[in-house]
UniProtKB/TrEMBL annotation:
This is Uncharacterized protein. The lineage of its organism: Eukaryota, Viridiplantae, Streptophyta, Embryophyta, Tracheophyta. Keywords: Repeat. GO terms for biological process: RNA modification. PROSITE patterns: PPR. InterPro entries: PPR_At4g14850-like_plant, PPR_rpt, TPR-like_helical_dom_sf. GO terms for molecular function: RNA binding. Gene3D superfamilies: Tetratricopeptide repeat domain (1.25.40.10). The keyword Repeat applies. PPR repeats lie at residues 138-172, 240-274, 342-377, 444-478.
Length: 682
């Protein structure tokens, strides 16, 4: 049936997208009967322009009454696509029934559309059944089924189908190979990724593209093979912003922050402008490196190019300003100026407030304000609030957040469980922390380590040891953090022999790398027990340079057990290793003071300058640049003025300390002032 002029005019007004606005799509106008070719052309035109609801309206009014048009394999794929993007699951099932009843499902073009539809609807069982029943498959069929498996998280199945596809002689397109490489990266299957890399190089039928090589770079970065990723990247002829971003984000994810920053600079030198994703990837690098200079530069670049209004960028920028010690003022300004705040941005500002005790109350206030504005907190948000409660040592706030976690169904979250254990234990509620630990459905090494550490901090060394043994009985392998926690528990409880055994086990562990914190804790344990010689032997055999904390701990132990000769020798070694640190000289002076040595008889070679600086009588004592004087007299048990160096910076001691007449009976520089000066100079 053909259309007269008036009917065709009405039809154009009803369906043609150029003649009407989107709001007029469902106006009730009598629809004429169209020919097959006219309907096909109109459907394809509507789908091409993204007018999916209008396409379905046309199908219901024009195609449904005609059995002939149902079977048209030229129009059915377009209608199925419209149904897919319109999320009309019920109509999609009807279209599948129409295809089966008319035999159209045997055509690959129709079956491919149905597989893609079921992938979007997360109905992979129907897609599998349809794929298995297809008498013939083309490249698009295989692509559709592989993408269906990937979209629904069946990565192993997608890899199996890809192998079968290639064995049967089908040549995959570069986009499909990129998707498979992404799966290899997510599953850390480096072996298969290398095989696909070899396939790309050897098989000349595979189309070469920058998209494919970028996927290879991303694969090697995710599998922590930065060197291979760099080789692939260097051989790329066409490097775009996406490939550079893959390098930057890959280095950042692998903890190679300096190279990430180098790539970011090199990208701009090559004339490639960073995009929004690049900036979001490099900002955490600036936060870790403490480079506020680069953070500000990126902020300015984003402002000039209009990226600063993006939620994720603003969240990352808030993190940079807080992490780099700029305070909360810049972060607060960014947060308040953002128009549409999402849960990520709220989580960022709450996490920023949670970092210190002084601002932790603000974190809790923002948590409540966030809910009042209709934003539902996620597990990351709640984790930050629990951290705020921990810093406040506020068990009341902590219990309230704990109740929220239970009501929200987040109690199965492993990270939240660990943070609650930490919060209750640091607030002194060990029974509550143990109860949460028992109720956790899943426990990892961190869960055990936190509980062991909490027992140790409260002096419950034997209980900590029992937990350590239970942990191994449950099949959880202790890591370096666990050993640090249990050795620290032995240190606090004075369990010397147990601590020695545990440290020996940690040393023999092939896969464990002990840090200077482990050695400091163990040396402190030996020093407290009076085993000075054993502690000195550990110091001499350490694989790294002893820290000031280790020297100070050992010297303090020598003073307690009156091993003054050893203490003097260690103090001189400490001064030799760090001559600019005034606290080291203070420590030596205290050793001499307790051993009864007169400093007037000491050689001048101990320090670079023994001269006493001139200060105004009655003026405040200032800690001046460089080591100036270390002198003490014992006449009438009075202390003379002591000047300390603080890394070349002049600092003022409390105003209560003044230069006074030496005839005064009150000591000028008491042991407490020594400790204060040493604490402020480290």
């Amino acid at each position: 049936m053909t259309l007269n002029h008036e009917s065709r005019k009405n039809w154009k007004k009803l369906y043609h997208p150029k003649c009407i606005s989107r709001s007029d799509l469902f106006t009730s106008v009598a629809s004429p009967i169209l020919s097959v070719s006219e309907v096909n052309a109109t459907v394809k035109d509507l789908v091409l322009k993204g007018l999916y609801n209008q396409t379905l309206k046309l199908y219901k009014e024009q195609l449904h009454p005609s059995v002939l048009l149902h079977a048209s394999i030229t129009v059915l794929p377009s209608v199925i696509k419209a149904c897919t993007y319109a999320q009309n699951h019920h109509l999609g099932l009807q279209l599948h029934c129409v295809a089966v009843s008319t035999g159209s499902d045997l055509q690959p073009v129709v079956s491919n559309s149905l597989i893609s539809m079921y992938a979007k609807f997360s109905n992979i069982d129907c897609a599998r059944t349809l794929f298995a029943a297809m008498p013939q498959r083309d490249t698009i069929t295989w692509n559709s089924m592989i993408n269906c498996s990937i979209q629904n998280g069946y990565f192993a199945e997608s890899l199996r189908i890809f192998k079968e596809m290639y064995v049967r002689g089908f040549v995959p397109k570069s986009e499909l190979i990129a998707s498979i490489l992404s799966v290899c990266g997510k599953t850390k299957d480096l072996r298969l990724g290398r095989e696909i890399h070899a396939l790309v190089v050897i098989d000349g039928r595979i189309e070469d593209s920058a998209f494919l090589w970028t996927a290879l770079v991303d694969l090697y970065m995710k599998c922590n093979d930065s060197l291979m990723a760099l080789r692939v990247f260097d051989r790329m002829e066409d490097k775009n912003d996406v490939s550079w971003t893959s390098m930057v984000s890959g280095f950042a994810a692998n903890g190679d922050y300096n190279n990430a920053l180098y790539c970011f600079r090199a990208m701009q030198l090559e004339g490639i402008k960073p995009n929004r994703v690049t900036l979001i990837a490099i900002l955490p690098v600036c936060a870790v490196l403490g480079s506020i200079k680069h953070g500000r530069e990126i902020h300015g670049y984003a402002f000039r190019h209009g990226f600063n209004s993006e939620f994720r960028f603003s969240s990352a920028l808030i993190h940079v300003y807080c992490k780099c010690g700029e305070g909360l003022r810049p972060a607060k300004i960014i947060f308040e100026r953002s128009t549409g705040k999402d849960v990520v941005m709220w989580s960022s500002i709450i996490a920023s407030y949670s970092q210190s005790r002084e601002t932790a109350e603000e974190a809790i206030k923002h948590f409540h304000q966030m809910q009042m504005e209709g934003i539902q907190p996620n597990s990351v948000t709640v984790l930050a609030v629990v951290s705020a409660c921990t810093n406040l040592s506020s068990v009341n706030h902590g219990r309230a957040i704990h109740c929220y976690i239970l009501k929200s169904g987040l109690n199965s979250d492993l990270f939240l469980g660990n943070s609650l254990i930490d919060m209750y234990s640091k607030c002194g509620y060990l029974i509550d922390s143990q109860q949460i630990f028992k109720e956790m459905p899943v426990r990892d090494c961190i869960s055990w380590s936190i509980l062991i550490s909490s027992q140790g901090l409260h002096g419950c060394g034997k209980e900590a040891l029992q937990l350590f043994h239970e942990m191994q009985e449950h099949g959880v392998e202790p890591d370096a953090i666990t050993y640090l926690a249990i050795i620290s528990a032995c240190n606090h409880a004075g369990l010397v022999e147990e601590g020695k055994k545990l440290f020996g086990r940690a040393l023999k562990h092939n896969k464990m790398l002990l840090t200077i914190e482990h050695y400091a804790c163990y040396i402190g344990l030996l020093g407290r027990a009076g085993k000075i010689d054993d502690a000195c032997e550990v110091v001499s055999t350490m694989p790294m340079k002893p820290s000031t904390r280790i020297w100070s701990s050992l010297i303090s132990a020598c003073k307690v057990y009156e091993r003054f000769e050893v203490a003097e020798s260690l103090a001189h070694r400490l001064i030799k290793s760090d001559p600019e640190n005034a606290a080291n000289y203070t420590l030596l002076s205290m050793v001499y003071a307790e051993s009864g040595v007169d400093l007037d008889g000491l050689p001048r070679s101990i320090s670079p300058d023994w001269s006493i600086p001139s200060i105004k009588e009655g003026g405040p004592v200032r800690v001046t640049s460089g080591w100036k004087a270390l002198k003490k007299t014992y006449a009438s048990e009075n202390y003379q003025f002591l000047s300390l160096a603080v890394d070349g910076n002049e600092k003022e001691l409390p105003e209560t300390v003044h230069f006074r007449d030496l005839s005064l009976k009150e000591p000028l520089f008491t042991r407490e002032l020594f400790a204060h000066a040493m604490e402020n100079s480290i």
